[in-house]
Every structure is written in C-alpha cells, then in structure tokens.
Amino acid sequence: MTHQPSAPPAVTGPSVQSTPARSLLARLGEPRVLSWLSVVIVLAGWELAVIALALNPIYLPRPSRIVVALFEMFRTGGLTSDLIATLSRIFGGFFLALGLGVALGVWMATSERVRAVADTFIAALYPLPKVTLIPLLIIWLGTGGPFMLTISMLGAFFPIVINTVLGIGQCDQGLVLAARDLGASRRQIIRMVLLPSAIPSIFAGIRLGLGVSIILVVAAEMVVGKVGLGARLYLAGQVLETEQVFAVLIVLATLGIMVTKAQDMIDVRLGHWRVN
Amino acid sequence: MPPVGTAAAVPAASTGAVATTVAVEQVGLVFPSRSGEPTVALADVSCHFAPGAVTAIIGPSGCGKSTLLQIIRGFLAPTHGRLRFVAGPGDAPHKAPHSTPHMTTVWQAFNLFPWRTILDNVAFGLEVAGVGRAEREARARAALAKVDLAGFERKYPRQLSGGMRQRVGLARALVMEPELLLLDEPFGALDAQTRLVLQEQLAALVETSGTTAILVTHSIEEAVLLADTILVMTARPGRIAAEIAVDLPRPRSMATTRDPRFAALFDHIYGLLRQEVIRAMATEGGGA
C-alpha cells in the first residue's frame, strides 16, 4: 500500500512511517480487535483439537458442526418459533413486572402504611429462590402461558419494586420542595420529580430483574415446556444431540449479550444528565 | 449598568400598586425533642412585610430564619400564633381579602432538576400550571434573558457554574410572576466574587420588578445592599430583636458599599448580631 515514491498521498496519518507489517501488528493489539481475535483463536484451537484427538462428537462436537446444526435448526427445525416463544414469555412477564413493580414501588415509597404492609411480604418472598415456586405454580396454573408469564414476572418483579422504592427514597428532598413551591400537585411531583430521579435506580432493578426472568423462563421450559429454547435444550440433551445442545446455548448466550448491550445503550442515553 | 446615585429613595414601587401585606402575628414553633425538653425554634415572632419592598431577615445560624420563611411559604405550620395576608389596592379586584399570595422561592441549594434542560427547569412552574408548550417556552426564554442566560436554554444544570445555576433558580421563580418572592440564603453556596456580582444583579432585578421580596441571609452586606427593611433575629429561640430601615438611595451597586451611611448601618447591625452570635455559641456549647 505505501509505495514510497510515486504513490499519491491517499494514505492518512499513522502509516506514513510504519511498514505494512508493523501497522497490522499494531491493529491486532487494539483491544476491540484483540477480543474478537481471541474468540477466533479459541474456536480454531477447539476445532483442531477435536480433529487431532479424534474426540467422540457426543462429548465435544467441532465448532463448524455446531454452526451447521444451528443453521439447520433455524432453517428446518423450527428453532425460530422456539426463540419467539421464549422471548415472548421473558418479555411478557418482564413488562408485567415493570408495570406492577414500578406502580407498587411508587405507592410504597409515598405511603408509609402501604410500605409497612408490603415490606414484610417482600422481605419474605424476595430471598426465596423463585425456581422453588415452579411446582406450586404448576399445581395452580398448569404448564401453559399463564404459568410461564407468572414465573417470568416473579423473577423481575422484586428487584424492580425494591429498586423503585430505593430510588425514590434517595430523591433529593430539596427537589420535591422546589416542585411544591412551583405549584406541582402530588401526582405531578410523582410523575415529574420522583420517577425521573429514580430512573437510574429503576434501571439497575431492570438489569437484575431481566436476568432473573431469563433464567426462570429457560428453567421452567426445561422442566415442563413443549416449545421454547429451554425445552429444545433439554430434548437435545435427552437424545444426545450434543451439536444441538451447543447450538441452543449459542442462541441463549447471544440473547444475553444483546440484552446487556441494549441496557448499556439505554443507560447511556438516560444518564446524560447525571451528575458526575 | 444604570448610573449610580440617582437619588430615588422610593422603594421599588414602580407599578405604583400596593399589593398583599404579609403579617406575622406572635408566631411560634415548638417541637418535642427526644430529651423531653421541647425545642423552641421560634418564640413569639411578630413582624410585617410591606408590599413592594424587600425585607431582609438576618440572624445567627440556627436562629430559625429559614424556618420562618417556610412558615410564611406554608410548608411548616406554626404551633402558636398566625399568619395574615391582607390584600391591598394593588391586588386584582376579584382577589379575596385574605387569600394567600402567589409565592415562589429561590433556594440556597438551587434545587434545579438535573434531568431537565435549563429551559425546562425555568418552565417547570408554568408546565404544572398547564400553560401550553409554545407559551411557556417563550416566557421561560424571556426570563432567562433577564438573568443574562440567553443561549443556555439547551444546557443541563451540571454544565453551568454555581452562579449561573442560581440565576436559573432566580429565573425559575420570577417567571411565575410571584406576588411574593422568597429568597432563602440564595447566595450562601456561592464563592465571594460570584456573590458580589449576583447581589448587584439581584438588586437591579428587584428594583425593576417591584415584587415584594423576603430575603433570608447571614450576610450583613447583602442585607443592607438589597433590602428596604432589615429584621435582626436573636439566637434560638428566635425572636425579632430589631427592625432597621435602610434609607440608602436606589439603584444600589457595589459603589453603595462605600457610602458612609452603608458603613454606619453595617456597624449598627454588626453590633446587634455580635452579641447574638456569642450568645448562640454559648448556648450551643452548654447544650451539647
């Protein structure tokens, strides 16, 4: 690229002095590149190790086979409908939890009586591992949609309620006084002062809650589901389709990454006014 | 800057209207404390605030001057005595004779909403009152221009200096066109130089707006520079120790501080406060 004499000065900045090899090495050292590169190296090592050691694919299939299995599952195996089922269970329950959780949180934070009543129940239910509720919920609700929505909602509900109460409790009382002084009603204070100031805390609750919802829905699907990623994972394991097990795990991991990244983006957008 | 010393001793009655008088009648505030001995925050405070004038309340820290302001604002209920508002001929004719005047406050801690832009902070009061977006933004812009903050509408509070933030606080209170402006140690959180400049600007603003204002401060200089009347409070339990008329000509500026009458007033108030501050320190030392 950088031929010394006649080349037009199309090259910008850094490569003026360095040779091509050197600049490539420098590029490889960049953290972003490095993080992808490490993934590629691990996958290549895995592939080669499986071939070299002639491992039984039931124990450890080759990454290339897993990718093929993944595409096959999407193309003909109906994995798309499993993904949709799981996502709608997670987010259906999550949005229910968000609505109910923020509403109860606001109510608790603004009324001492409500708080006194709700605190005890939350203290009793919050530390309980929610998976332990699966048998009881199945007895009550069966194994269909209502059960899945409830288990998903239970996961996200408590972190959201608790963080909403906390966030509103930490609101600067001076801001509430200023709003009252400017004529805001109780409802306006809640909507225009308490909720906006609690948003960082509510989002911390959402972060925790959505994670628990994902775990619970997949776990519930593994126990009783006929469709859904959890059901697919369990089924593949039962029949020793290890490639499919890995394929579902990849889908779940990707889902996790996307949810985390989306939350990071929302956090940045919401955090622009935050005092640093 | 307007020329200094144009002798117009008329206290900011530019509209010629005499609006609501605030009368504080034997107001006291006593609250129970854990030790059993009730704490007397305010004892038998009587004073009145003349319409269209700036009244400063000055006193040692902990004397209850901010508490008195909260009582006048209606955020604290006194345990004794009462407040009376008496409408004057300058009030709107439909106004009930003893209705509470429209008040807004400027706070020591600014209390700006950090998630709202400067424009939206100033427009907050109009927004909760149901004023439409176009109108409230226009009025907020005008108020910001009055405090020399045109061009900062889209910024957030954290992007502004302390002095600028308090000018936003002032614009937010003034945009509501209050009949009574409450200033609760408005420059207490600012550095000395910023304070001087803002005091001068506030003096000019209250002179032109003609609103009744109550200024709580612990700066003698600030009280003399801004007020028509100064109420000196005693150490806890707070009482009114003296009422002092400030007959310095307006408009006032930093040049006013070199007026011999300014020095005389300063010394007089300092003499009164000194005893109270010493007494406050003694009781605090004894009580703790």
From TrEMBL, chain A:
Record InterPro entries: MetI-like, MetI-like_sf
Main localization category: membrane
Alphabetical list of Gene3D superfamilies matching this protein: MetI-like
Places the protein is found: Cell membrane
Keywords: Cell membrane, Membrane, Transmembrane, Transmembrane helix, Transport
Membrane topology: Multi-pass membrane protein
Transmembrane portions of the chain: 33-54, 90-109, 121-141, 147-168, 189-219, 239-259
Biological process, per Gene Ontology: transmembrane transport
GO CC field: plasma membrane
UniProt domain ABC transmembrane type-1: residue ranges: 83-263
Similarity remark: Belongs to the binding-protein-dependent transport system permease family.
Protein name, per record: ABC transporter permease subunit
Originating organism: Rhodoplanes serenus
Organism placement in taxonomy: Bacteria, Pseudomonadati, Pseudomonadota, Alphaproteobacteria, Hyphomicrobiales
Automatic annotation (TrEMBL), chain B:
Gene3D superfamilies cross-referenced by the UniProt entry: P-loop containing nucleotide triphosphate hydrolases (3.40.50.300)
SMART domains noted in UniProt: AAA
UniProt cross-references to SUPFAM superfamilies, sorted A to Z: P-loop containing nucleoside triphosphate hydrolases
Keyword vocabulary terms for this entry: ATP-binding, Nucleotide-binding, Transport
Entry superkingdom: Bacteria
InterPro entries for this protein: AAA+_ATPase (IPR003593), ABC_transporter-like_ATP-bd (IPR003439), ABC_transporter-like_CS (IPR017871), ABC_transporter_ATP-bind (IPR050166), P-loop_NTPase (IPR027417)
Gene Ontology molecular function, alphabetical: ATP binding; ATP hydrolysis activity
ABC transporter domain: residues covered: 22-260
PANTHER family the record matches: ALIPHATIC SULFONATES IMPORT ATP-BINDING PROTEIN SSUB, TAURINE IMPORT ATP-BINDING PROTEIN-RELATED
Family according to the record: Belongs to the ABC transporter superfamily.
Protein's UniProt name: ATP-binding cassette domain-containing protein
